[in-house]
Amino acid sequence: MRRRLLVVLLAVSACSSAGSTPNAARSSEHVTSTTVAPTTTSTTMPTTTTMPTATTTTALAPPSRHVSEQAWIPFAFASDVTLRYPSSRVEHVGFHQSNDEGAQQLEALPGVDAVTLEDRGRGTGSQTSADVVVDPDSEIRAPVSGTVVSSGSYVLYCDQRDYYVNIEPDAHPGWKVRMLHMTGL
Q1: How does residue 25 score in pLDDT terms, banded at 50, 70 and 90?
Q2: Distance CA 76, CA 145 (A)
Q3: What's the longest Cα–Cα distance across the chain?
Q4: What is each CA distance from 110 to 82, 90, 113, 142, 184, in whole angstroms?
Q5: 151 near 165, Cβ under 8 Å?
Q6: pLDDT at 32 over 50
Q7: Contact assessment for residue 119 and residue 126, using Cβ atoms and an 8 Å cutoff
Q8: CB 116 within 8 A of CB 129
Q9: What gap in Å lies between CA 81 and CA 13, rounded to an integer?
Q10: What pLDDT does 165 receive?
C-alpha cells in the first residue's frame, strides 16, 4: 500500500531572482512520501528432518494521521510577512534550510504542530523553508496576499512533473514567497 502526501514548500526570500526556475536537483529533497509495505520474517523450524523454511507475511497498519481542520490561519512569519497555511487541512509543518540565497528566517506561531529538521549544509537559517504536509484532496491557496511574478513547471526526480509559483507579498515588495510541489497550477 502506498500513500502520497502533498507537500507544499514555502520559502520567503529577499533575493532579486523572483522569476528564476527552481533547480530540480536541489528541490527534490523537499518531496515527502510515506510507503507502508508488508514485513517478511523467515524462520527455520528445528526438526530432525529437513523442512522448508517457513515464511510469514504481516501487513503493517499505516501510521495514524492527525489532520487539523482550520480556515487558512497564519502559521509563521518572517519580518512583516505573515504566512497562512496553504490548505484548510494541514497534517504537519517541517521547517528546514532553504536553497535560496537571501532566505529569511521563519518563526512559527504558538500552537503550530512543527519540527525543525537537521542541518542540510546549505548556509541558510534552520527555519528558512517550510514543508507543509496537507491532505492531497484539499484546495491549495496562496499563503500571502500579493502578486504572482512567475510560475511554471520543472521535472523532479527525473520523471515527475512539479509546479512552482513565486509571489511578491504586498506586505514586503521586493521579497518573494515561493511555493513548490503542487500537483498543478
Answers
A1: very low
A2: 14
A3: 80
A4: 13, 16, 9, 21, 31
A5: yes
A6: no
A7: yes
A8: no
A9: 11
A10: 93
